[in-house]
Amino acid sequence: MLKVWKPLEKLLMWANMWLFIITAHPHVSQDGTVYNMANIHGSNPSYNFVEFGPSSSGGFPKGRIVASIPIDNKFKRSYFHSFGITENYFIFAEISLIFDALKFLASNFTQTAISNAFKWNPNSTSKFHLVHRRTGNRSVFLAEPFFTFHHINAYEEEDHVVVDLCGSSDGRIMNMLTLKNIDPNVNEARPNIPAVKPRRYVLPINSESKKVDENLVSLKNTTASAIKNQKGEIFCYFEELFDVISELPRINYSLNGKSYRYFYSISSPEGTIDPNKVIKFDLQKKEVQTFSEEGKSVSEPVFVVRPNSVDEDDGVVLFSILDDEHPQKVSLVLLDGKSFKELGRADFDANGTVPNDFHGLFIAKKDQVHLY
After folding, report:
1. Best label site of 100, 263, 325, 327, fewest CB within 10 Å?
2. What CA–CA distance (Å, rounded) separates 242 from 259?
């Protein structure tokens, strides 16, 4: 039986805060506290970390800004889709894909796509902003220009902050995601979509006394490096974790912000955004396990931990499958988190075409807090 949900009221989440462009990827604590990022426009623009505390009344809690990063240019700022968090830090990747606010505002008058307001700047320097969650103190680390939609996870280890994300050194993807470039029925040459692969950056903490031109990363389990130059700036170089195209990463969320071993993602053939595989990555053994079916497209894998489990990968992986030849057919697939073997599936015949989706969320019936 189809249920129709009706809104109870209209809620202005950002009332009295003047915040815009919230990310699609909040971080949720065990007590229900939600952290997210948003912009402030105007004469003193900034990137902002926002906290929504758990609500005792059942309504939506009031938000507050817990830390801010000034934006140098009033009309241009870095695009961001997600951010990192650890026990003590927020991590903001100020990438080299630039959003031009003036072009955005003019798009309604010029009748141009909003994507024209985004420009990849391969000659710029990307930055990591490491912001202490309690004091607001901020450290800045530099990197070669890169692009990312999704952080995988981040954690602290021996005076370092490890930042894992799905990244690319070519950020033109935003301007390539047009209908004619992704529709297989359009008889035009499709451009090669830049490959996005899992990579690791390591940000050294307390490096003021360290020597110039030496690698500041002392962790033994990574080839990522960080070099201090004569100006005192720290330049970070990434380690490619796997030579595998990877997007929409998910983890066992109980380890969000903590050291972890596994993550799950979709993968596409080189040069495309046609997701045809779900992959389990083992960061310790540097191994992958893959699920795919000929002629099928997959959605973001959602890891659901087994109650009272001990092992990190003890649970199930949920995702949907679409039939490329019969777009009204869709299945929900369950894989064992350890063996990555199929446990079962539910098949549906929809009344119309079912499009590919992006993100998924599992909510248990008795959950009071819905972890991401």
Report:
1. 325
2. 18
Token duo for residue 30: 């065990």
Question: Does residue 58 surpass a pLDDT of 60?
Answer: no
Kindly provide the residue ranges of all beta strands, DSSP E only, lying in 34-159, ordered along the sequence.
34-40, 46-52, 63-70, 76-78, 84-85, 89-94, 97-100, 118-120, 126-132, 138-143, 147-156
Interatomic CA distance for residues 230 and 214, integer angstroms: 11
**Residues 26, 34: Cα–Cα separation, whole Å:** 6
Specify the pLDDT at position 21. 72
The strand pairing partners of 345, in sequence order, are: 333
Task: For residue 107, report the phi and psi dihedrals to the nearest 5 degrees.
Answer: -60, -30
Retrieve residue 174's tokens: 């935003």
Residue with tokens 């699609």: 24
- Average pLDDT of the chain to the nearest whole number: 89
63-70 and 342-349 beta bridge pairing: unpaired
pLDDT at 219 (0 to 100) = 96
**pLDDT at site 207:** 79
Supply 190's token pair.
């499709």
| Cβ–Cβ < 8 Å for 228, 207 | yes
Cα–Cα distances (Å) from 326 to 36, 234, 318, 321, in that order, read 38, 52, 21, 11
